Amino acid sequence: MNHALITELFEIIADGGLEENDIAAMSAEVIKAHADAQSYLANDPASSYKEEFAIPLWEWVLLEQLEDGLIFKSSQAEALYKQIEDAFGEGELELSADALTALTTAGALSRIQNELAPAFTLINFSKNIANEMQILLVRSNKLERFMTLCQTLGLAAATSCANH
């Protein structure tokens, strides 16, 4: 596990929204979980990690580090969009979550992508847990590097819309 690659991944995802020391601490947690999963779990008895999730502990820890505004999770596209709206702030986006209710999930994700384009690309990230989509917003100009990092680290990542 390469600390520099994990740090760069977090930097791309955070897009300037986190301090360097916060990113370093997040990366360190992932590295610790990768280095010795049993010891890490022994020191974190409150962890909700389960082997049934079919992802390694370090990836689970990485996902936990993205909570609170860096990753958006929901089984419904309109709820997902409301989280994105909250992250951007009131009045920053024009699309209404209500406009997504009658659409299929794919159609709703396409509308959300159109709302955020060209600045951001929606990314399905990691394996879905608890039947929820796990979406990241990645700056479109950093998308190629982000996808390369994910491939190198063995993380599942794909654009949410086939035409984007």
List descriptors:
single chain; 164 residues; alpha+beta; 4 strands; globular
At a glance:
With 164 residues, the protein is of the alpha+beta class. It has helices spanning 3-14, 20-35, 37-42, 57-65, 77-88, 105-116, 143-153, and strands at 72-74, 120-125, 133-139, 157-159.
Q: What is the beta-strand fraction?
A: 5-15%
Number of helices: 7
Give the termini distance in whole angstroms. 30 Å
Instruction: Provide the succession of SSEs.
Output: HHHHEHHEEHE
Largest sheet: 4 strands, antiparallel
Please provide a written account of the structure.
This protein has 164 residues and is of the alpha+beta class. The chain has helices spanning 3-14, 20-35, 37-42, 57-65, 77-88, 105-116, 143-153, and strands spanning 72-74, 120-125, 133-139, 157-159. It has a four-stranded antiparallel β-sheet with strand order 1-3-2-4, with helices on both faces. Strand 2 (120-125) and strand 3 form a beta hairpin. The longest helix is centred in the N-terminal third of the chain and has 16 residues, at 20-35.
